[in-house]
Amino acid sequence: MFTIKNHLEKRNGHLIIGGVDTVDLVEEFGTPLYVTNEQRIRDNYRRYHQAFPEADLYYAAKANNNLTIMRILAQEGAGADVFSDGELYLALLAGIPREKILFNGNSKTDRELEMAVETGVRVSVDSLDELHTLSRIASSQKKTMDIALRVNPDVSPVTHPKISTGLKTSKFGIPHKEVVEAYKEAVELEGINPIGMHCHIGSQILDTSPFSETINRMMDLVEQVTRLGVELEFLDIGSGLGIPYKKGEVAPTPQDLSDIVLPIFRKRSQAIGVDIKLVIEPGRYLLGDTTILLTSVNTMKKAAKKFVGVDAGFNLLIRPAMYDSYHHVVVANKVAAPVSSIYTVVGPICETGDILAHDRELPAVEKDDIVAILDAGAYGFCMSSQYNGRPRCAEILVNEGKVDVIRKAENFDDLMAKQLVPARFL
Ligand code: LLP
Questions:
Q1: Atom in ligand 1 nearest the alpha carbon of residue 281
Q2: CB atoms near residue 365 (< 10 Å)
């Protein structure tokens, strides 16, 4: 057994995940196929938890909302960052305790706020307008809601602009210069109990300096708000820790993040005289590298490039098309074969941008080979669609040689599932 990357191994020239041969998986379940290694989720969670033993980890449900996967994280002790009523529903169904759920969102419906009040979760309030709506809804139900205000800290992370969330111009949060005034208002409002402060600066961040800037800025605000007499119980600094998608790419570990954040957090908490809980909302780090997407080669073409036409496209993994993201690919049934040529792996979607991997060195690829797209566990399946009339594929969980189906593949009925045809078209 040789390691390919992290928990992925090779045996007899085949890619192995969670002790299971990917070629056998494809024989049994076909392709495309998402395959997740349960143990890797647990190991990632434990590594993060070890680096931040006193913090609460609220898993960012948007990264992967498969119920079994959320249950694994719930078993490990995770709370949840949810961004919609649907994610709240799933987090509760997964067994995550309501007091460890933070309902985020920059444009929540009144119905979503009502659900937050009914279920008694905490809410990260994104604007003054939302604060007033929540106050009205909570007081009409004679409830008091524990809330945080979402701060826009105006910190620039070095990452793709589409996944930067804490820039001054971003749509998220209350500008940091206006936040103290907002807390003054919050303490006066009926049905509102401001006990937290929240921010999130972006995702896939590979440098720790934006995090130290963020924690310092947030502790400045904690200090000012405490001076007002607000008793904060938690500070949620969001997430954003990147993972190495490319060979040779170096990403900070949770321990590196902790080495930057914790000394500042502890020192400043002590100086201010507060005892607050640190909350972090990891998504990508927990799930990203746990999962591969297996896809079969339908057709080969030599044109301006050597194109490998596979059966998964941006309908199933949109990250390369949407953010020019790099995902490493290997030929799962030929992992021991030498590099033969440079190939571009493309999906079956009728869009020029449907390219999964540009100009990669791969062994000689032929029809019916199996390509594995690595690191597809975060923002993979959950961002999929049925575009081009393609039912979504199955999801499989593997663990030390055991195999479970955790989502059945869709079929043509699912393309029609919610459509209604008026009688005059029958
Ligand atoms: N907390 C909040 C409030 C967030 O908005 C996010 C991600 C997270 C936590 C989790 O961040 P992470 O640990 O995963 O970096 N679809 C994009 C990523 C969008 C991230 C949105 N917010 C991608 O595929 O790269």
A1: 9
A2: 21
Is the bond preceding residue 252 a cis peptide, omega within 30 degrees?
no
Q: Are strands 355-362 and 402-407 parallel, antiparallel or unpaired?
A: unpaired
Q: Provide mean pLDDT across the span 105-130.
A: 98
pLDDT for position 401: 97
Residue type, 410: E
Q: Which residues line ligand 1 (CB under 6 A)?
A: 60, 62-63, 81, 104, 163, 165, 200, 203-204, 238-241, 281-285, 319, 323, 378-379
Pocket test for ligand 1, best of 284, 316, 324 (most atoms within 8 A of CB): 284
Q: Per-residue pLDDT tens for 343-399? A: 999 999 999 999 999 999 999 999 999 999 999 999 999 999 999 999 999 999 999
350 catalytically annotated: yes
**Number of residues assigned to the chain:** 426
Task: Please give the Cα distance from 163 to 258 (Å, whole number).
Answer: 22
Cα distance between residue 293 and residue 107, in whole Å: 32
309 with 299: CB under 8 angstroms? yes
